[in-house]
Amino acid sequence: MAIFGARNFLSRSFSSLSPHPLRICIVGGGPAGFYTAEKMLKTHQGSQVDIIDRLPTPFGLVRSGVAPDHPETKVVLAYGAESDRVLGIPGEDLKGVHSAREFVWWYNGHPDGRNLDPDLKSTDTAVILGQGNVALDVARILLRPTSDLATTDIASHALTALEQSSIRKVYVVGRRGPVQAACTAKELREVLGIKDLYIHIKEEDLKITPADEEEMKNSRIHRRIYELLSKAAVARASQPSSGQRELHFVFFHQPDMFLESSDKKGYVSGVHLERTVLKGVGPGKQTAVGTGKFEDLACGIVLKSIGYKSVPVDGLPFDNQKGVVPNIKGRVLSYNSRDPTLLENGLYVCGWLKRGPTGIIATNLYCAEETVTSILEDLEQGIIASTASLPKPGRDGLLQIMDNRNVRVIPFSTWERIDKEEKRLGNLRNKPREKLTTWEELLKATSE
User: Of 116, 149, 213, 419, which one has the fewest beta carbons inside 10 Å?
Assistant: First the structure.
């Protein structure tokens, strides 16, 4: 696990009254971890649950992944996905090409994203690759009036940069068509509803095929997305007014390479896109294939929203291709085996680490239920033993290991001091909170 400086862990402990508790350690304090703890405590009265996280702030994506203008959204392995998928195309390492995860961490005040410093002044055009909810979050942050963002818990350094931003055009690029866009209707409505925003969608991209009709017949969400995009295309003006911010949906295109600026060596100046068409790969399913026709889209910053990726931990089975811990209903398998008899007894997984970075935050609730059900079944069948028959040191043993390794444990009560300080600072600025965004600030607050 990545540990900062003098090695710090946030820990939260829960227990149900029992002389011989079932002792569970949950690695990761995000939604999946807390949902699992809640389900475990409700369904097994003899549980003692500890949640540990490498950050001194809990709640994972709720704090560092959900857009600041969405405040209402805010051992079992549940440490999520802290890396990014890569495209593997030329120019991906050019300056100005960032992952959406990095950008989201930057504007949400994650201490590991504090120094990203994206250049929003040198260009008026940004390209976002991907058309899922994260892509729309990023587009909304770039295009929404900063006066609206000023009363959210957006990080102050991000708000200052956005206030000085020159970005006026955002292109959201997807390999497939409007029927297959991977966002939810709620996210799409919000970005389409930004005041005084010019929306552009090519009329030809909205033409649908019998295969598209079949997809919409089987998915109410896909039909609703298509209807919203079609309505936005019809309602728009023919041209943007002077100074008006613009959002362009670009369908049926995939990146082939990133273009280097001729004026600034090492910096991105555009994306070389290949036109795609859809090809049926089964009933109600279509995939994008390249046509060999290309075009360039000029820009000064690119944000890749093509998926998060979990990272492996030494000694833990991991499927590098899928980016998950191999499992059956949350039970961790040994060495990528699909043989259900080859299990890592007592080791379970939930959240993105279990299924990949898919779904919304609430999806973790159902994911946690499945994992907890597996734990209880194994306990009932004697596959894992309670402390009555096999005493283990549990929480005391965990704390001893951390002490031996010079890990500073930050209890949940100390996080509450951080929480109180952030709310105090936010109140001075008419914000719900002013996040502490550096490790130094966070650790200082834990010591006061």
Answer: 213
CA 188/CA 76 separation, integer angstroms? 34
Quick one: which of 106, 105, 101, 137 has its CA closest to 120?
106
173 contacts: CB under 8 Å, gap ≥ 6: 127, 128, 129, 130, 131, 250, 253, 254, 255, 271, 273, 297
Identity of the amino acid at 165: S
pLDDT in tens, 106-164: 999 999 889 999 999 999 999 999 999 999 999 999 999 999 999 999 999 999 999 99
Which of 58-80 are b and which e, b meaning 16 or more Cβ less than 10 Å from the residue's Cβ?
A: bbbbbbbbbbbbeeeeebbbbbb
Distance CA 18, CA 355 (A): 33
**Interatomic CA distance for residues 65 and 92, integer angstroms:** 23
The C-alpha angle with vertex 80 and arms to 75 and 85, in degrees rounded to 5, equals 140
pTM above 0.85, yes or no: no
Q: Which residues pair with 197 in a beta bridge?
A: 245
Predicted confidence (pLDDT) at residue 387 exceeds the cutoff of 60:
no
